[in-house]
Amino acid sequence: MKKITILGSTGSIGTQALEVIDKLQNFEVLALSAGKNIKLLLEQIKKYEPKCVCIQDMKDKDKVKSEFPNIKVLSGEEGLIELCSNKENDIILASTSGKIGLRPTLKAIECGIDIALANKETLVMAGDIVMKEVKKHNVKLLPVDSEHSAIFQCAQDFSKVEKIIITASGGPFLHKTIEEMNKSTAADALKHPRWSMGKKITIDSATLMNKGLEVIEAHHLFNMPYDKIDVIIHPQSIIHSAVEFKDGSTIAQLGNPSMHIPIQYALTYPNREYGIESHSFNFLDCNLTFEKPDYNKFRCLKLALEAGKIGGSMPCVLSCANDIAVNKFLLGEISISDISNIVEEAMNKHQVITNPTIDDLIEIDKKLKQDII
Ligand code: MN3
Description:
Shape: globular
CATH class of the largest domain: Mainly Alpha
Radius of gyration: 20 Å
Helix content: 40-55%
Number of helices: 16
Number of strands: 11
Largest sheet: 7 strands, parallel
Structural class: alpha/beta
CATH architecture of the largest domain: Orthogonal Bundle
Bound molecules: manganese (III) ion
């Protein structure tokens, strides 16, 4: 039995990971963490019988304790860090959304526990720090994001890789004009054509900020310079990404869009087991097209690539300012084009810190929350 803790078990990745675990049947769930969806967490506790759970807010503790009096209930960031300190874990799935996952993930790495990483902020904000710790403690950092899983499935020795090609579906505004896109509401932006995901990442997919964050992630995960990472629009989302080798050969990973496959590959690596999507891929059924991203329309993508190249604390500014802006857009306070305006302004104002510490990064986020109103 492989022992696992799932951070963010009630979210989109967390629930799909539990489906994968149901199918694999060789995992023991040691602990779960959830945000506000206590109802679903209670169902998960009943089914998986973890010894410990972590919730966002201690005020929900009684709801858990009244049904499961013997379970240990923790809360907040300290709670997540405690879950990540349990060396009984063989692997931790980091699938919380946002920066709350950063310190707990670092703690798990420090404890020598392998990580299946679904949380983008961890590498975008603190990629240099995280990768250094990964090397130091000799742990596996296994990508769950479909593009990074694709790249990882195509190549493991990146010294032989010439270029990474990351595909993007293009989101709901791909074939809309800039004017049409700018008039869209949060409800329009939440209609993603290919993937069903949480709200924040769906908006990021509509602005292509998500793709920009993925480029930064790929840069850290695979130690590739930014000029060797290309983004290409591929609306069908069949090719999940590709790798070009130095000899000119290109390997791509493809299949119908499903998060079960990358989640399972991260959990079973280096093995492959029968999965939920056991039907084979039908080549006769697909028509694959590709196009260049429009950087004028998708300014968030352009800003992300710039922030990545600047490095240091700049990707953290990009990610935190974007978080704040996306939240405002979801609340109907700003238009979608204001997201890139807010991010650009925050980047322009920022004095780059070359080798930021985690405390520097947390401070940047705090300050941005005060500045952006
Ligand atoms: Mn992705």
